[in-house]
Amino acid sequence: MTDAAAGDSPELQIAQLALSVCRRIDLPGAADAFARGAAVQTGVTIALLYLYDGESDIDRLAASTLAPDDPWRREIAALDLSALRTGERVAGGVPFVAPAPAGLAGLRLHSIVATSLIEEGRAAGVLILGEPDAVPTGIDLAILGRLVAAMLPGLLNARVVETYRELVIKDDQSECFNRRFFDRCLSEELYRAQRYATTLSMVFLDLDNLKQVNEAYGHGAGSRTVREVARRLVIGIRGSDRAFRYGGDEVCIILPATPCDGARELCERLRLSIADKPFVVDSTTRVSVTASFGIAAYPEHARTSLGLIKCADDAMRQAKRSGKNAVIVARRERGDHDGAASGGTR
Predict the structure, then answer these.
(1) Which structural domain, as residue segments, surrounds residue 35?
(2) Segment holding 250, helix H or strand E
(3) Which residues on adjacent β-strands are paired with residue 206?
């Protein structure tokens, strides 16, 4: 397929860009083609594609034209864009000019062109186009509207495929992915980090007192607690991050393009989200649980999948030994090329 070029007629360019989305049945690939297609057609520097997560009532960043290692990816990973995807002015998915949401201030976006993505009469997400420190001009909103309408079926089809795919790779007891998918995902993300010379962090966490919950209230209560912990973890991470149920009450989280400092900040927020609010066992009973977190990063602590797992696991065990309900970053042993952890610091 020939890439869309500036000299092509609008109709041909729309057809080529729509085809580039339709040919991708994986959601990340289709979303990336969607965002970059909109940037090509309009000539803007920044294109952000958000998909609406109805369960969490939040918009999650699915794709953007930002560099893979741009730190702002994390800051804008989840936003409330209800003002851009609801109301009369966005009905029908017609592009419009609006002030940039406050959450995008770090990108120096002040005025944007937004398009609500509509699926069967409901808002499915929003496309945002803009230029740093400038008002986007010269954009034919009618042509952009036709482009979005042409690309949208391919994006929605990829999302349906993703839904069925998740039935296979999701853990059947929680909202996390399963152990089988963890091995593949870690290998893929590690390869991507090596190829593009970016960072990658991995988190290993274990609940501190689930055994006491099981003994006091039964294993059913313990299972409900694990499911609620998983739900809080999934809500607390970016759309590009992945949480996996590694064992009974052990969870691994893969954080692409994230250095140790960013992983530590995230883990502190996740730790508090678990420790600060009791879990519902039944209509009259609440239980409190905590978790211990271990963090390892590529290439700082290890350069292989097994090395990262060992580093993060050892750091988590150090958190257990240090009093539990803590976050520990792995420390590389001198001369250990795989980065086995020798403890860490809070």
Answers:
(1) 10-169
(2) strand 250-256
(3) 250, 292
pLDDT, one tens digit per residue, over 66-78 is 998 888 888 899 9
- Is-contact 74 262, C-beta < 8 A? yes
Bond into 259 cis (ω within 30): no
- Are 88 and 205 in a shared domain? no
Judge contact between 94 and 146, C-beta under 8 A. no
User: Residue 34 is part of a domain; what is its CATH number?
Assistant: 3.30.450.40
- Distance, C-alpha 81 to centroid of its chain: 16
> Does an H or E element contain 79, and which?
strand 78-79
The pTM score is 0.58
CA distance 340 to 344: 11
Tens digits of residue pLDDT in 233-259 = 998 998 789 999 998 889 999 999 999
Give the whole-angstrom CA distance, residue 76 versus residue 165: 26
Please give the radius of gyration of the chain, using alpha carbons only, rounded to the nearest integer: 22
Contact 259, 170 (CB under 8 A): no
Instruction: Tell me, yes or no, whether 238 and 279 share the same domain.
Output: yes
- The answer to whether 72 touches 59, Cβ cutoff 8 Å, is no
In this structure, the chain runs to a length of 346
Instruction: For residues 46 and 40, give the distance between their C-alpha atoms in angstroms, rounded to a whole number.
Output: 10
State the DSSP H helix or E strand holding residue 168, giving kind and residue range, or none if neither: helix 141-169
Same-domain check for residues 226 and 145: no
Neighbour-count burial of 304, counting CB atoms closer than 10 A to its CB (0-12 exposed, 13-18 middle, 19+ buried): middle
